[in-house]
Input
Amino acid sequence: MNFQQLRSVREAVRRNFNLTEVAHTLHTSQPGVSRQIRELEEELGIELFVRAGKRLTGLTEPGGHVLPIIERMLQESSNLRHAGQEFVARQSGRLCIAATHTQARYALPVAVQEFRGHFPDVRLHLHQGSPRQVAQMLLDGDADVGIATEALADYPQLVALPCYCWTHSVIVPPGHVLLEGPLTLDALARHPLITYDTGFTGRTRIDDAFEAAKLAPHIVLTAMDADVIKTYVQLGMGVGVVAGMAYEAERDTQLRALDAGALFGINHTRLAVRRGSYLRGYVHAFIESFAPTLTRDAVDQAMATEPSPAGGA
Output
């Protein structure tokens, strides 16, 4: 048994049983991948995959039981390498952060700047995506830290820790009738709305609030990025609903903001890491810089806690 055999099995599942893609990912040939899988099956005495001719079409029942063990073995081998690197180069390495557009644009800059000042030899990589893409990057080992408001708490394989709270704001051009108040869901529903795509930046709370009030908002445009939403509000296409942090009075001089916390409630942004992963010292330093309450002890304690049966928002 060797790690290349284990990687071949794991990637076959990740790549939807497409051995051509597996071979490309592992920088080998398709026959080589098939051979690695067959050799592991022969050693274990079980078939891991359902086959149609030479094609893999799914996992067998034994394969479904073995896959989590393979995942743990590969993760522990990665942890072992990181632990060694921790002592060889304590102040250098690579830190990959996955975040949504809103977090990358408005919440991360101060923490990233502070981190760079303390760890100039660490190479930072910032990936942006939807909350579920952020979660997948963590699960695939492509990111060390993930930051988003939605989805992260839905995965038991992740440790998702609340790091700060925020509310939405309604943004309008100067002189808009909504500025005369009071701001209500009923008043808001009378205007065309521009807000986030489903699954982004607290959109779930927006939808739930209108549904609870038995109102059907007229959403004319959605986007992932608050700057895009603000652009179309300025063009007069509708009223915007964005994260409060996305409105900057000094910069957004052609817009006005109304706090909508009373309408849509409080949102919790979470920072997540993969359960069981080894976090190098500078990863802990970044986490604490971004969210001071998430000390090394707090993160380690959360990592040691068994996942709850049901995730959060």
About this structure: The radius of gyration is 23 Å.
